[in-house]
Amino acid sequence: MPETLPRVMFIEDEATLRKSYERFFADRYAMEFAASGAEAVTKVKPFAPEVVVLDLRLPDTDGIEVMRQVREIDPQVPVIITTAYVSMGPLVSMLALGRTSFMTKPFDLNDLARKIDEASNLP
Fold first, then answer.
1. Most buried among 8, 28, 72, 77, by the most CB within 10 A?
2. What is the span of the domain harbouring residue 105?
3. What gap in Å lies between CA 51 and CA 88, rounded to an integer?
4. pTM for the model
C-alpha cells in the first residue's frame, strides 16, 4: 500500500453510486464527492484530485461544462467520463480536450479502478 493514496474526485449525482464508490474504493483512494457540477467546481481546487471521475449528466449542468471548469483549475488532471447515454457529439468534444477516457454505465468497479490507476500514473 502506498504511503499516500491517490486522490480521486467522483462527480456523480446518483447517491447509490456515490455510496458504492465510497465502499468499494475505501482502502484504495483518498476520495472527494460532488453531486452536482457547482459543488464539484468548488471542491476541485482545495482537494487537488489526481483523477476525476465525471458523470456526463448532472442535475445542474452537463459534464462538458464541468470538465471545462475543472480544466481551467487544473489543465492536466485526467478525467474519466461515465455515462449511461452514449451520444457521440458530447463525447467527441470531451475527448478532444485530452487526458480523457470514458466508460458506459453500468460498468464493473474493478474496470473503473484499472482506468483510475492508469490515469493516475500519467506523467
1. 8
2. 7-120
3. 23
4. 0.89
Cβ distance 82 to 103 under 8 Å?
A: yes
98: alpha, beta or left, given left = phi > 0 and alpha = psi -120 to 50? left
CATH code for the domain of 97: 3.40.50.2300
Q: Could you identify the residue written with the cell 452537463? A: 62
CB neighbours of 50 closer than 8 A, spacing ≥ 6? 6, 7, 8, 77, 78, 119, 120
Q: How confident is the model over 7-40, as pLDDT tens digits?
A: 999 999 999 999 999 999 999 999 999 999 999 9
Number of structural domains in the chain: 1
CB atoms within 10 A of CB 82: 23
